[in-house]
Design a protein that fits this description.
about 200 residues, mainly alpha, globular
C-alpha cells in the first residue's frame, strides 16, 4: 500500500466517516447481545452466541466483500477471521449449524464495499477491549477459545493504520467519500438487524 495521500484531507474524511456512522455504531453497541460480552457477569452461552452471530458477519465479509479487494489490498488474506471463530467455537464444544446472510444487497460498488470493510476491520480493534473482559473467565484465560478477539495480536494497531491509509488513499483518488460512508452505515445497520433478530 502506497501512502500518496494528503494527510489533512485524509484526517478530515476519516473524522467525517466516524461522525456520520456514530449513531449507527452506538445503536449496535446498545443492543443486549453486544452488552452481554462486556458484562462482568458474562456467561459462556453469551460468548458462544456472540461468536456464532459474528461468524455470519465474517462469512459474508469473506464471500461478498473480500473479492472486491483481492487485487487492491496486499494483506487481505491475513485479514480473514471466520476460521478463528470456528476454532473458538470448537474449543467451546459448539458447532455452527445454521448461517444467515447479513449484508443483503443486490448490487455493491467498490467504495460501498470499502465502507462495509471499514466497519468489520474496526470491530477487530474493538475486539481487543472485549478480550480483556472475556479472558477474566477461567475457561478463556489462556490462548484457547479467544483467537477471534485476539485479532492480529500485537499487530492489531499497525493493521488498522495500514487499512486506514488504504481507505484514505482510495477515497482521495476516486472522490467517493459519500459512498464509503453509505456502505459503513449499511454495515452497522445490517449487523444491528442481524443481532436484534437473534
Amino acid at each position: 500500500m502506497s501512502t500518496h495521500i494528503n494527510s489533512a484531507i485524509a484526517s478530515d474524511f476519516l473524522q467525517n466517516l466516524k461522525t456520520q456512522t456514530a449513531d449507527s455504531h452506538q445503536k449496535l453497541e446498545d443492543l443486549s447481545v453486544s452488552k452481554s460480552i462486556m458484562s462482568p457477569n458474562m456467561e459462556l452461552e453469551d460468548y458462544t452466541h456472540y461468536l456464532s452471530l459474528m461468524h455470519d458477519v465474517h462469512n459474508d465479509t469473506e464471500t461478498i466483500i473480500f473479492p472486491f479487494f483481492s487485487n487492491l489490498i496486499e494483506d487481505l488474506e491475513q485479514r480473514r477471521k471466520k476460521h478463528l471463530i470456528e476454532d473458538d467455537l470448537l474449543f467451546l464444544n459448539s458447532k455452527k449449524t445454521d448461517s444467515a446472510t447479513v449484508f443483503h444487497k443486490d448490487e455493491m460498488s467498490v467504495p460501498f464495499a470499502l465502507g462495509v470493510l471499514y466497519v468489520v476491520e474496526g470491530s477487530t480493534l474493538g475486539g481487543r477491549f472485549i478480550l480483556k473482559n472475556v479472558s477474566k473467565r477461567p475457561e478463556l484465560s489462556g490462548e484457547k477459545g479467544v483467537s477471534y478477539f485476539s485479532g492480529y495480536g500485537e499487530r492489531t494497531g499497525s493493521f488498522w493504520k495500514a487499512f486506514l491509509n488504504f481507505l484514505s488513499e482510495y477515497e482521495q483518488k476516486h472522490e467517493c467519500g459519500e459512498e464509503i460512508i453509505e456502505g459503513a452505515v449499511f454495515a452497522f445497520d445490517s449487523i444491528y438487524k442481524h443481532f436484534e433478530g437473534r
